[in-house]
Design brief:
Radius of gyration: 13 Å
Shape: globular
Strand order of the largest sheet: 3-2-1-4-5
């Protein structure tokens, strides 16, 4: 799988989220390692969701993982906290805001 294919798939999963109830600004950078290696960001701003294939320098948290791990998280098949505990997901930055990734994933299933 190429980075472009992976990004397209993950972006479509994230874009299913209804973030209208999330009233704070959240900015996450994802560093994908291994197959489909690349960088992208997810931002919630003023009730809107943005997913772009760029580095985000003013981020709240940065996640590093393999493409397969993020696909499972984005699909709701792997809890982000469990992925961190299993050392499949590395987190840097504001841990409080990083934990809100769960809210973003949960917003998909509304």
């Amino acid at each position: 799988m190429t980075y472009a294919e992976f990004f397209s798939e993950v972006k479509s999963k994230f874009m299913e989220a209804d973030v209208s109830d999330i009233h704070e600004h959240l900015a996450y950078q994802f560093n994908i390692t291994g197959e489909a290696e690349g960088i992208f960001y997810v931002e919630v701003k003023e009730g809107k969701l943005y997913v772009e294939p760029y580095e985000y320098f003013d981020r709240d948290a940065m996640f590093t993982c393999k493409a397969e791990t993020l696909k499972k998280i984005a699909a709701g098949k792997l809890d982000p906290v469990a992925a961190f505990t299993l050392q499949k997901l590395k987190v840097e930055g504001d841990i409080g805001k990083a934990l809100k990734l769960k809210d973003l994933i949960a917003a998909k299933s509304k």
